[in-house]
Amino acid sequence: MTGERLRFDGWIAGVGTSSGTRLVVGHWPRSPFGAFSDVMVEHPDGERVLLAPSRRIADFVAATYRFDRIEVVPVAVTVSGATWRVEAGRCTCGCGPDAGPPSVCCCPPYRPRWSAAPSGPRCAMFRPGC
Length: 130
Prior knowledge:
This protein is mostly beta strands and about 130 residues long. Helices cover about 5% and strands about 40% of the residues.
């Protein structure tokens, strides 16, 4: 698909922890590849890992961004109002007012403009080891 203009319709959300781990989730209900989601995990040591649902999507994303490691794993994102739930391989994160109590994974303390969360977003259930 080189040289052709591609249109993606979706969202990108980022989350960081005080220990230095970052997650960036792309959620694309409409794309040239069909609906899909992918996750970038950056560990505190700087290692960047792409979690993608197929080799085709992994190759496309890796042609745009730099990753130290790529894993093809099931990736599921559920969006309900202002709450996102993400499952990608061994990584699980929920973000938003209905995600449950905060734990290891924390959203920034401000409320993004796109969030309708009345008390501000929070994250729950992040398991390190991605």
